[in-house]
Amino acid sequence: MTRPVAVVTGASSGIGEAYARDLAAKGRDLLLVARRRERLESLAAELHELHGVGVRVAPCDLADRAGRAAAMAQIDDLGRAPEVLVLNAGFTSYGAFADLTAAREADMVELNCLGVLELMRHALPAMRTAGRGAVVVVSSAAAWQPMPYMATYAATKSFELTLAEGVREELRGTGVCVVAVLPGPVPTEFGASGGVPGGAGDGLPYRRPEDVVAATWRALARGRGRVSVGPLAVAARLAAVIVPRGLVLAATGIAGRRTLRRAEAHARRSSASRARP
Ligand SMILES: NC(=O)c1ccc[n+]([C@@H]2O[C@H](COP(=O)([O-])OP(=O)(O)OC[C@H]3O[C@@H](n4cnc5c(N)ncnc54)[C@H](OP(=O)(O)O)[C@@H]3O)[C@@H](O)[C@H]2O)c1
């Protein structure tokens, strides 16, 4: 008998890697999607060795239409509907919107929005026919409010949340469920790759990638459509409900400008110390 199979995007690091490790430990075959082939192949070999599961890799750029088509072809090649589809690949940029590289912002929309939309749309008919399965959309606490200096990112995460909740409702009674996962800060490569100031030691209440994974399974077991992970995510959710949006925006604006000024001062100090003989 073939084992159930799970698809994980963004499996080459961070939260996606944690989903892949957990699903393999639970005996799922895997299809791992991301761009860095070596990372995926080494994780695949390790998980096969540890758990005896079958692991395929799909090194695809999901910010690119052809890359998404290649990933969808790999899903078809599995020959069975995914039991779990984890749509997790995503990135951010950081800075004043007017100064950011337009092409990178557009890539973010392609990956964070179209990457989720197209893969979910592609996999769902077979999952619905199978009459079971789960789609996990890794959004963010950023989905709840506009975020100055991460404006595109927050907009893409709102898109994911709204899409996930709408599709979930459509699937009621089919046996397939959709859960939106909204983590607060998690220590992964995300901050550094997006140029976000801060990181370890910045005092934020971080949650581990494994906590995000465990919260996802708990939410699914309880039939929940979304789950906030960590105190900042819970606070963002509460603020969105009880605080007028204008006030939330004013607060994120103040916090954002403060962080930007600190980051600029840090960059100036670093370049001055590099210039010193
Ligand atoms: N870390 C946080 O604080 C945090 C908080 C809330 C939500 N999230 C969300 O969690 C998700 C995972 O992020 P993470 O924290 O685990 O960050 P991460 O360690 O940087 O992982 C991002 C993953 O996405 C993949 N990816 C990036 N661009 C891609 C592309 N064009 N095509 C295919 N795959 C691509 C990366 O692999 P390759 O580079 O190999 O392609 C990597 O596997 C994201 O959607 C993020 O928005 C993160």
Would you kindly provide a written description of the structure presented here, covering whatever features stand out?
The chain has nine helices and seven strands. By secondary structure, the chain is α/β, with parallel strands linked by helices. It has a single domain (5-241), classed as NAD(P)-binding Rossmann-like Domain (Rossmann fold), CATH 3.40.50. Helix 1 (14-25) packs parallel to helix 2 (37-51) and helix 1 (14-25) packs across helix 7. It starts with a strand and ends with a helix. The model has no long low-confidence stretch (mean pLDDT 95). Residues 10-16, 34-36, 39, 61-63, 88-91, 111, 138, 140, 183, 185-186, 188-190, 193 line the site of NADP nicotinamide-adenine-dinucleotide phosphate.
